[in-house]
User: Which sequence fits this backbone?
DNA sequence: AAATGTGGAATTTTT
DNA sequence: TTCCACATTT
């Protein structure tokens, strides 16, 4: 076996890649070459003739991962990746539903709603049915529906324990009715419909089962119940399912991810003659030893694990650097200082990441970086296809493609303003409801309940009709361009003084249509046909018959980049969640404080702290060479200063691999250092200082009675905490302490024997 | 129909 | 603090 494909694989990777035909669960630790194994496995199957490209289905969660798989695969083998089913769960389900829209009981040109659209639909529904949004918050219903669907449950299958739940189920049913009438599906619906399609149509199911001899799943720990059921349906007796995942990196339980899927895999995908193979990839190619030691020790505190230990053949490397800053401002200043000196040493800024638990923390960091003129890029936020002007342009296109889309209708009927007031739309909504039709049909039928067809409404109908006629024969980008202008959007934003960005985005939408066509072209070859249940011919990768519908699906399924990548290298700011899968030379994990990380909300959740710990594990394992873990004694949060105890996760990193860059007492908690001295001390600490910088700065002894807000204390009964308030003096003096384990308490200094901690 | 004011809430996020 | 939804004003 001297295939170059297999060169440089370690024994476990090699075993995984060349596994004989049967299902396998690959426990792939952080940085263990997971993507490489996955793509090499596919290449291997193809190269050895064990599978044809059409027999392979590979599924990921993100478009980015799917794209990367395609790129790496084409680099490895000369195969045409075009006919292959490689994509996201949603993308593949969309493809399947387009091909079998009749059996799925969907209109041919069904439209996909993103979460914004979905919320808008729920709001409309609340208005129409007079549902009380105080008692039933719209967001909550949105979550309720998504959760139900992710478990594969229709309204009649949801068990409602109490009255509230019963009402929510009713609302769920109403919602479904609206979606069906308007011909729109939400994200979860793509999965559920596809699942039901396979469940109900045996012929189809058998067709796909026979076709896909190999199913490969990326980030298996992130699959939800429905995705798992979908995989089970799709996998026939002779299908080998190759599931790659890491239970220690399961950080999406809050959106339905079900790690138990990994535990059940062996039972559900094994056959008596071909039990599931279990392979662990534990050799890490990313990080130096001390970083891995920190990660391993940390994650050992979780009880529910499959069990894994990362190791490296490389160096121990630097110690993990820890810092207790007096406040969030100093924490940010420290990061600026270190980044500057690293940059001065020649480290690319893009190799430095600053991670935080919640987005709110980015502001101050941005402020500090901005003032220091350090280029940075923040991940997260508004994506291209989510911007208002882009969504409006898309709504016109949706109306052109699919006029019954009430959401699209309402979005642009009077935008830009054209004299269709709230009153007109109300009447129209009433008329549509009584006639049981879409707004579009009601408008065509003559408008409002009063029977007075509004002239502006008629003009709008004509506008859409004329757009449809004008764009009919046009290539997609030209059609988009036409709609941008004919809709009046361009004229509208030209009038606005801050409209230039929006105009740019509208122009960018034309470009997006161009590149969509270009990429779709590459992805398409001859229509896939099979004797019994042929897949419909595809015009594009999105699987729709016409390019416009495909583009609209693309816009919904791939929201696009957060912001255009800047030319110059920049530091990377993001949440820990967003950092999953990435790696950097230097990583700062910031805000390591009880209440923030682990987040206080997680403490009430089942398995909450363990998930937070996995999150911390993800954060730590992003670092290749240098890891900083920082916390601040005081932090401005929601407009108020808060005093937090240092995170328990800091204590869980073995002292032997940590160098404290700030004075620190023996136990958890903050330092006892005067902010005034801070700058001086910090100045003496350079990031290059040897690991032995450690905790050796002696702290001036606490003077028995001189307690300060922000100080860490210990109480014999209540444990450790931080003083957050004080009042009175002398014998009456009391302090308020936020104890880590026992909460906030007022203590009289005369009686409570507090000691500095 | 745009501009201004008020109250409340405030993880994590892909599709 | 900041963002949002909603209500009220202009």
Assistant:
């Amino acid at each position: 076996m001297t295939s170059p494909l297999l060169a440089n694989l370690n024994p476990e990777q090699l075993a995984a890649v060349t596994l004989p035909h049967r299902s396998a669960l690959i426990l792939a630790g952080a940085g263990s070459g997971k993507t490489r194994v996955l793509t090499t496995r596919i290449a291997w199957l193809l190269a050895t003739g064990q599978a044809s490209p059409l027999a392979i289905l590979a599924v990921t969660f993100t478009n980015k991962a799917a794209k990367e798989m395609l790129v790496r695969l084409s680099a490895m083998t000369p195969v045409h990746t075009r006919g292959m089913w490689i994509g996201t769960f949603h993308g593949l389900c969309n493809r399947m539903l387009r091909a079998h829209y009749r059996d799925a009981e969907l209109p041919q040109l069904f439209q996909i709603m993103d979460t914004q659209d979905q919320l808008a639909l729920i709001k409309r529904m609340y208005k129409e049915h007079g549902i009380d949004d105080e008692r039933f918050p719209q967001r909550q219903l949105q979550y309720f529906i998504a959760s139900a669907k992710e478990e594969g449950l229709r309204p009649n299958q949801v068990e409602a324990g109490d009255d509230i739940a019963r009402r929510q189920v009713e609302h769920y049913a109403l919602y479904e009715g609206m979606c069906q009438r308007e011909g729109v599906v939400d994200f979860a619906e793509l999965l559920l419909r596809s699942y039901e399609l396979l469940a109900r149509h045996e012929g189809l199911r058998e067709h796909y089962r026979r076709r896909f001899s190999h199913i490969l799943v990326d980030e298996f720990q992130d699959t939800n119940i429905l995705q798992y059921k979908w995989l089970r349906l799709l996998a026939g007796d002779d299908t080998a399912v190759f599931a790659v995942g890491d239970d220690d990196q399961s950080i999406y339980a809050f959106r339905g991810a079900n790690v138990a899927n990994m535990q059940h895999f062996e039972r559900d995908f094994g056959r008596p003659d071909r039990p599931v193979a279990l392979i662990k990839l534990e050799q890490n190619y990313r990080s130096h030893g001390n970083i891995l030691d920190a990660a391993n020790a940390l994650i050992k505190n979780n009880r529910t694990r499959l069990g894994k230990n990362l190791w490296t053949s490389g160096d121990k490397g630097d110690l993990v650097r820890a810092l207790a800053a007096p406040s969030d401002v100093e924490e940010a200043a420290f990061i600026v200082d270190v980044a500057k000196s690293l940059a001065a040493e020649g480290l690319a800024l893009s190799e430095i990441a600053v991670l935080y638990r919640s987005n709110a923390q980015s502001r101050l960091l941005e402020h500090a970086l901005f003032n220091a003129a350090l280029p940075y890029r923040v991940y997260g936020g508004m994506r291209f296809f989510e911007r208002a002007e882009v969504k409006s342009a898309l709504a016109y296109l949706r109306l052109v493609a699919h006029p019954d889309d009430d959401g699209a209708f309402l979005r642009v009927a009077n935008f830009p303003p054209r004299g269709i007031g709230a009153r007109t739309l109300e009447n129209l909504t009433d008329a549509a409801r009584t006639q049981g039709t879409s707004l579009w049909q009601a408008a065509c039928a003559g408008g409002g309940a009063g029977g007075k067809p509004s002239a502006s409404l008629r003009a709008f109908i004509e506008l859409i009709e004329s757009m449809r006629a004008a764009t009919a024969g046009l290539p997609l980008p030209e059609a988009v361009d036409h709609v941008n202008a004919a809709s009046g959007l361009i004229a509208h934003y030209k009038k606005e003084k801050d409209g230039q960005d929006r105009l740019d985005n509208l122009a960018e939408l034309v470009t997006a249509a161009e590149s969509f066509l270009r990429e779709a072209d590459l992805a398409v070859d001859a229509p896939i046909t099979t004797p019994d249940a042929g897949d419909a011919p595809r015009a594009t990768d999105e699987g729709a018959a016409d390019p416009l519908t495909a583009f609209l699906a693309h816009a919904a399924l791939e929201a696009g980049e957060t912001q255009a990548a800047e030319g110059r290298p920049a530091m990377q700011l993001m949440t820990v969640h967003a950092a999953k899968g990435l790696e950097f030379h230097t990583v700062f994990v910031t805000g390591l404080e009880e209440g923030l990380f682990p987040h206080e909300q997680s403490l009430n959740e089942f398995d909450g702290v363990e998930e937070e710990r996995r999150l911390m594990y993800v954060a730590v394992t992003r670092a290749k060479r240098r890891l900083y873990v920082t916390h601040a004694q005081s932090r401005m949060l929601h407009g108020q200063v808060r005093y937090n105890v240092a995170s328990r996760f800091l204590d869980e990193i073995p002292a032997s691999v940590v160098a404290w860059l700030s004075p620190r007492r023996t136990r958890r908690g903050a330092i006892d250092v005067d902010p005034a001295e801070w700058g001086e001390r910090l100045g003496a600490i350079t990031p290059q200082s040897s690991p032995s910088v450690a905790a050796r700065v002696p702290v001036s002894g606490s003077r028995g009675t001189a307690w300060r807000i922000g100080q860490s204390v210990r109480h014999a009964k209540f444990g450790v905490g931080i003083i957050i308030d004080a009042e009175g003096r002398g014998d009456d003096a009391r302090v308020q302490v936020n104890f880590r384990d026992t909460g906030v308490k007022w203590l009289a200094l005369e009686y409570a024997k507090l000691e500095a901690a």
Residues 523-541, 665-704 of chain A have pLDDT under 50 and may be disordered. The CA atoms of residues 17 and 44 of chain A lie 7 Å apart. Residues 360, 363, 636-640 of chain A lie near DNA strand C (CB under 10 Å from a C1'). The longest strand of chain A covers residues 623-637.
